[in-house]
Design goal:
By secondary structure, the chain is α+β, with helices and mostly antiparallel strands. It has one domain: Alpha-Beta Plaits. Strands 1, 2, 3, 4 and 5 form a 5-stranded antiparallel β-sheet that branches. Helix 1 crosses helix 2. The chain is globular.
């Protein structure tokens, strides 16, 4: 499992945060999504064998929220994969 932190723009309300979360949770390989609307940050845990950071960013941009990496590092975890997607 990998994790990436992204800064996103144009989010001004709770609906925006829900839209970001719902859009990313539909992506195969996304395991969890944590949206910090006020900080304009989203943390995504994902299976790198199923989805890439570029794909995640593309979904965000198609949803109307341009992104940039908060750091060039992507965190890799060796913990067992979660069963199903987080609620």
């Amino acid at each position: 499992m990998d994790r990436v932190d992204l800064h996103f723009e144009n989010a001004s309300c709770a609906h925006c945060a829900r839209l970001v979360s719902q859009s990313l949770r539909k992506v195969e390989g996304v395991l969890s999504v944590d949206v910090d609307r006020l900080g304009q940050k989203v943390t995504v845990a994902f299976d790198p064998s199923l989805v890439t950071v570029d794909s995640i960013r593309s979904v965000m941009e198609k949803t109307g929220y341009p992104t940039r990496l908060l750091s060039e590092r992507i965190t890799h975890f060796s913990a067992p994969l979660l069963s199903g997607r987080a609620a």
